[in-house]
Amino acid sequence: AKLNQLHREMASFQEVHVHHESEYVTIHRVHPETRQGVLLIAHCAFGGASEQAPFENPRLYGTAVTPELAYRLRPAAENTSKSEDGILHGLPAELEELDAPGIIQAADERGTYTELRLPRGFGPGSVLAVRTRLTDFRPDLDWKIRTCADEAASNLDLGALNVALFRCDAEERDTTGDGAYTVPGVGALAYCGLQGWHAHLQHIIPQNDLGHPLCGHLRQGCWALDYVSARLRKHTEYPQLVALADWFDERWALVKRVPNFLVPRYFALTMHTAYQALVRRALRLMPGAIVGRSRFTNQLALTSVQLVGHVRSAGLWPQNTGCSMSAGLPHFSTHHMRCWGRDVFIALEGLLLATGRFAEARDHILSFGSTLKHGLIPNLLDSGRLPRYNARDATWFWLQAVQSYCKMSDEGLDFLDVQVERRFPDGETFVEWNSDDAYSKSSSIGELVQEVMQRHAQGIEFREWNAGVNLDSQMRDEGFNIKVQVDFERTGFVSGGSRWNCGTWMDKMGSSDKAGIRGVPATPRDGADIEIVGLQKSTLRWLAELNRDNGFPYSGVTAADGARITYVQWDQLVQDSFEKHFWVPEDAADDAEYNVNPGLVSRRGIYRDTFGSSTEWADYQFRPNIAVAMAVAPELFDMNHAISCLHTMGTVLVAPLGMRTLDPHDIRYRPNYDNSNDSSDPLVAHGINYHQGPEWLWPIGYYLRARLTFLHKLVLANSPEASTKALRTVYHELHANMVNLKHHISTSSFAGLP
């Protein structure tokens, strides 16, 4: 009867805590708001159970305990008689009432507590129940924790939200000297901000996983609570974070008064409340069209907050270390390795333009534009102090970003008239960043664009400033010589590089002496790279159209031989040359119509990766770079050829998350990257195969855009029946890709895509 009465009362006691120790099971049911509860301890009567099984007396901190019942069920003497009525009557037993459990009041460094001691004779088959009540508890604690979070976040800008939500260990140490929190049994959190905790709480909360190491750590002490608010106060560059720290401390003061076994619950409630408020604030500050469309687009938008933040060692200008974009966390987070030209401008449209962060996009374009030297945008910005110019592709991704900004921002083409102070006034000579010469001359963005085009047309040739082991300890001396040119006689393609340097994103330099590859690039990709040709074509088309419509004052360039080439002519030359020099026909009988060496062809019906490489066989490698050209300059491609190639890319190069960097059919294909490999194998030592098969994610975006672009062309050119089939095929593929990406971003501790 007493148990039945307790069952009725406990109908609303929805929180259940279960603990198993030796032969004992402890169950604590608690009302989620009043925190009143019933604690039951049972000594199980399994075979071999002992009268004196060990049991650690439970200590209930901040809790008053009232005995409710204590009984033992003792089996009667063995009864061998069998029931004749066909009914199970159970085992004959006697119910014995036990003394009330011992209740001891005491205190230690963690506060006052009640220790519960088992009564005499509490052997197998015994059960006791006590009522519990928190002695210093606010019944409105849940309500209090949930209040005012939006107000605490209301003055935070996206830079402050980067601190509150994210910050990897290296970023935090760079700014405050402290690092990410380490949870025993878990390790260091991925982020110092709330996302680092949320990565674990999002699994703990729905599963009520109180056995998780984080919950155990919280029961042991309040160190995590103090860390959360204290780190916010250390970021003095964002004084508005003090209001959020105050909000936390007000709640932590209340949480620290609850019994230790409840700290995980109220820690989780506080962190979840704050996390949701910060996410809401971040999304409200990003007015881009994609924000708010779905949970997935919101998760993608939050990666913009994640990757753009303030670190002291790496800004966009030498003396102004405002927010800058990381090329990838946690490895590219501080100092000169944070801001990469190609990475910033590959990501700029998705991270900043699509999310409506036009001011930050503008700052990045202006900063890199200010460092234009030799007609190139730097590969490594280094806050404009010692930028490095060893990338041929960064400049063309920058030009694409300028085009996208002009088309997507309200500033439009007026942006081309914005003046930029030049880090290197003459565009050629190195001067120290803090000298009187630095930043003494200005150019407009439009003039910088023209300078890029003119310098490429005339040819670029220089030796890197400060060349040698201090600049790059792996590179051979020949690799520091940079050369870029345009073949106006045959193709109009921009080409360059040599076998000793790697001027595109596939830039892994050999570093193993044992394997004999130190200073030997894995993928030099010298010649005309297909993605650069595509970006070049996109820029030529845009400039020709702007000049025609009086939006750009320059009509063309002057070649090295003095010949004048208009943008219309240059654009047409590239258009006329592309298919002939990049398409590898499906049928060898058609080879005569194209510039193909049949003896080097390993796969047909594709576009080659490069043209004019010093290692001719490398031209015919099948890589994902095709997708970039297809997305930015679809007009270059014969529609049927493009669709056929895209199909092959989908079956050969597309991987679960991204794209394989090399055709698995290629003899050099090595899909498993290990930078610590110390073997003598020249194809894998020291991770030389970084771009020789391992899956990279970012090209998949260009691939999916290309699929949609050429699907649209196909729909316009075919019957409704054929169009419907094509639509179904492509959208099925898009959905399949999205499923994997959604799963990854939802489960990764970094809450991003690799």
What does this entry look like structurally?
The chain is an alpha+beta fold and 754 residues long. It is built from 21 helices and 26 strands. Helices cover 37% and strands 15% of the residues. The strands form 10 sheets. A 6-stranded antiparallel β-sheet has the order 1-2-3-9-5-6, with no helix packed on it. Strands 4-8-7 form a 3-stranded antiparallel β-sheet, with no helix packed on it. It has a 3-stranded antiparallel β-sheet with strand order 16-17-18. A hairpin with a 2-residue loop joins strand 1 (15-21) and strand 2 (24-30). Helix 13 (358-370) runs antiparallel to helix 14. The two termini are 60 Å apart.
